[in-house]
Amino acid sequence: MPTIAQVLQDRGYVTGMIGKWHVGGPRLEFKPAARGFSEVAEWAGLDPDNSTGDGFYWGFRLLGPGPGLETILPSLGQSDADDHYLTRELTDRAIDFVSRNSTRPFFLYLAHVSAHSPLHVPARFDNSSFGYDLTTADGKTSAMISDLDREVGRLVDHIDALGLGPNTLIVFVSDNGGTASGRSGNFRRNAVVRGWKGSLYEGGTHVPMIARWTGQVPAGIVNATVCSSLDLLPTFAGFSGVTLPPGVEGRDLSRNLTRGAWSPSPDLFWVAPRFLSYSDAEAAGADPEQLDQFAIRSGNLKLVLGPDQGQPGLFDVTSFQGELTDLSAANPDLVASMLARYKSWHASESRVPTTLTAVGETLAVPFDSRFDFADGDFTFSIDALSTELTQRSTLAVRPGCWELSWVDDRVRLELYDDRPGSLEERAVTLQTEPLRSGETHRISFSVYGQAWRGNRILSLYVDGALAQRLLPDAYPPGKSFYAATSSDQPITVGSRPDGTSKFLGTLSPPRIFTLALPRDEL
């Protein structure tokens, strides 16, 4: 699917990305320059827990669209440190981008980091009109938000000073709700709204969206239309006259913005881990295969399986009761209907649309990055007839990432990273007990975890039964994983080192989920 930048770049827009880019890890094909941005200043913090702030809000790096990196100095403690405080520096660069491209159509994605933890307030922050207690997390957070507000206002004022207000649509939106108390000390007041960042209650998903376009978007209007960030691409495309390719999600909200129109929202869906780490799940006594939370919103009703629930709850999100009044017991048919719609959506989103049957031949599954160990959590399954188990042959292989193979009379799963410069010890292996020959077995493996937290949960299954699992605490020393591939090579099914194939079976419709599937679903 195209990005907003790619769509508008093809339309003749100059495109710029400034700030945080939290997509694709280190892989170059997912970097801003590969996704339609001609100008890039990507923030790369060094140490978010550094008590001085060096490497986060001061003394950080900005990565450009090409090789090399730029270090922004000075660091905290130097005389002009606040002139390069992160929020200030990003705004300055945004103003420069607008100035240089004021006579051309442009698209700028400015991704501020503030008020993300650590809580570092500019040394020269003017607190005289606010009176925040800057010795507390609450006061520091408030000061950082006020500083961000000032910087956004500085950019908007610059756009107006150049006379671009009537031609420029500005959309302000957050990526998630506030952080819970005790997490990095970055407490946010959510009033009666339930939940925080990381949960699918309103406190984690309901965020501000403000649109400003002089003479086009009516000022001071609050629109009740429920929307999501998926709607931004179709909306921007609609304003710019771009026809989007089939399959793009979201809807065009141009009439909602310019005419104040209200329109019913289609069902909205969310799915996310219920715990931020395996240790959190273990402490809660959770099954490591049952770590999902999910939600579906239909009109004013929302069905939620939250991080602290055992069963889905039904809530009226307009009742201002903080999603505390569970209506599920009184509405079993409605719960069943919403749950069925969620499962249908989840299956359609998670399925790679391919079923291949091979008899003595080698097949290739089209590239899909969701089968990459570095890019997401998934379950891969294949039905294979176990003949000639004394020889080595490959059931399926994703070059540079993983290989599922027969070795003697066992199935072996290897996950590895063979990029130039990678370490050999980053390969890990799971293996089954001996299998019965001459029978068709369903071989599956699943990957669950969070890439930025290091090791993942790996599970290998045979005929729906767990054969072996590798948990983070069981990884051999030095084998912390962040595997990746560097090309769009497809999955190859059924091959041998000598180039021949003796694969008899079917690549099942692979299902990719955000966590390992329960055994009875494999």
Can you describe this structure?
Helix 2 runs parallel beside helix 3. Residues 514-522 have low confidence and may be disordered. The protein has 522 residues and is α+β, with helices and mostly antiparallel strands. It has a six-stranded antiparallel sheet, with no helix packed on it. The chain has helices at 4-10, 86-100, 137-161, 202-205, 232-240, 254-259, 278-283, 332-350; strands spanning 14-19, 39-44, 61-63, 69-71, 106-111, 170-173, 209-212, 268-273, 292-298, 301-305, 313-316, 356-359, 363-365, 378-385, 393-398, 402-407, 410-415, 428-431, 440-448, 457-462, 465-470, 491-495, 504-507. The two termini are 29 Å apart.
Summarize the structure.
The protein has about 525 residues and is an alpha+beta fold. It has eight helices and 23 strands.
Secondary structure layout:
Layout: H1 4-10, E1 14-19, E2 39-44, E3 61-63, E4 69-71, H2 86-100, E5 106-111, H3 137-161, E6 170-173, H4 202-205, E7 209-212, H5 232-240, H6 254-259, E8 268-273, H7 278-283, E9 292-298, E10 301-305, E11 313-316, H8 332-350, E12 356-359, E13 363-365, E14 378-385, E15 393-398, E16 402-407, E17 410-415, E18 428-431, E19 440-448, E20 457-462, E21 465-470, E22 491-495, E23 504-507
Parallel strand pairs: 1-2, 1-5
Antiparallel strand pairs: 2-3, 3-4, 6-7, 8-9, 9-10, 10-11, 12-23, 13-22, 14-19, 14-23, 15-16, 15-22, 16-17, 17-18, 19-20, 20-21
Helix pairs in contact: 2-3
